[in-house]
């Protein structure tokens, strides 16, 4: 039996059990008017007769304690300098970690119904992303300032939204084991999409936990040769003790993406309605990309208080202390582009190695080792909270093949190595609840990235109306960076270059004002980049000679009228050179839904419509041979609304989704549903999904 069949059976079983429980409780309401809570556990599941007897015996023993019975040992408290009393009191909470200093930032445990209908990860942030139409294929954010940094293995950034990294990993602390299963499917069997996610988190002790996560996003494709599957698996651990803290784990990323290069003639979509999209001719039928990556990481620190800790002090969070720490990360990725057949080979102009077939493989590994020390002068929540100073070394290895006959023009190829040594520092603090600030510096002393630097500063000011916050954030960043290795040196069957680019210099400023109680956020980003590197209309890297300026202003406003929710995100962008950094003038995402009053005290239901839109501009083209988005000048794209209708529901800890994605396809006469050149977005698809959390 295949893994896919097992997933289908498991989801069906969950649905059957859920439906049976709902019917049983409904019958009891009909017969008795209220639920006999003594027949259910705290999660609403029916108790067996023996389980009820054991519970009654326990309650009886608590009401009439027997002095001869040995008292249960009290649960040891969570003693950690990371968490305050409010977090310790929660049954489950989550956080992420920084490998620079082993510091954490809190995360929300995803059990909410709000935005549950946004199933594509790359559509959850801001106004969304451009993509090839197939789940698992290449994507890039519409917002210029949200596009992934190409500094590390740039040939994978088109699949960045599917990758798991140590910085994105979520750690959990839970008083009882926590697990969550999410599954979604859509479309006919020939073209179906599948999204699957499973999480398991468990605490061995109050301060030590481990977690497992598996994720798979893929589709068979609505158009020919569009099958894709991106997966990752993680195993992690965390120890957040009284003085010693450690985070570590293993991450496995893998992707298998069939590439069709887009449809051959856009008029097959814009001027004609093909009953079967698989009959629309595409540019490539036997091509694809494979990638695989392994990551191991660990970061740890030990705190030494500078005065004796009193018995009533649970942690060293408010004691002057010194921390020493170490962090190690090793990541290795391999990417392969393959192509065969006369039709596919004719798509490419150059054939440096073989004109009958292509199998281009490149690999890159990075070992980043650093040591750091932290000083906590007073307490972690003081005006001068924690100061960090550290030093590290990056050892990078690259591999690509260059035939002997081309080595005089494109270098030797083979195994290439470089080292970079750097120092860094960070300082942060807060003034009561009214102001927080932080600043950081990273400077490369020696090696391949010598004289590169990254300086950042951030401040947040808060005021309060009836104890409700009003917040203003401002940040600035100055950076000088050596270009990515692959933009300098590359050789393959169809593309080759040898460049000597200058360092990129960037100044980025951003500010935002938010009033959470009004659902209001207004922000702006502005960047100036000298010698910007981009991929031109011929899909080759080029360096802009001069200064590139990009401005973005966004507004987010959510209205609520009774049960009606009207949520708006609007972004306007301007670029001084659209051939270097193409952006649409206006982009928007609207979500309008009605939240039905809670049914029988346990069931929440939302019914609504999501809409996306951006003005016309020269949106990116996509080149599958190098896996890069490039700045095409062939055709303007945009001016088309994408509409999704959805119903979401939450019953206890189970969330359900029914969604008609892109239901307006071919309904309004305008069929220009493209976000990337020659790559149409999928037509109407009916989706159904479930996410169920367990605490047991």
Radius of gyration: 28 Å
Query: What value does the average pLDDT take?
Result: 89
Q: Which CATH class of the largest domain?
A: Mainly Beta
Structural class: mainly beta
Low-confidence sequence ranges: 9-54, 57-70
Strand tally is 35
CATH-level-2 architecture of the largest domain: Beta Barrel
The termini sit apart by 28 Å
Largest sheet: 22 strands, antiparallel, barrel
Q: How does the overall form come out from the CA principal axes?
A: globular
Query: How many DSSP helices?
Result: 7
Number of domains: 3
Would you give an account of this structure?
With 696 residues, the protein is mostly beta strands. The chain has three domains: 1-35; 37-71; 85-695, Maltoporin, Chain A. It is built from seven helices and 35 strands. The strands form seven sheets. The protein has a 22-stranded antiparallel beta barrel. Strands 2-1-5 form a three-stranded antiparallel β-sheet, with no helix packed on it. It is globular. Residues 9-54 and 57-70 have low confidence and may be disordered.
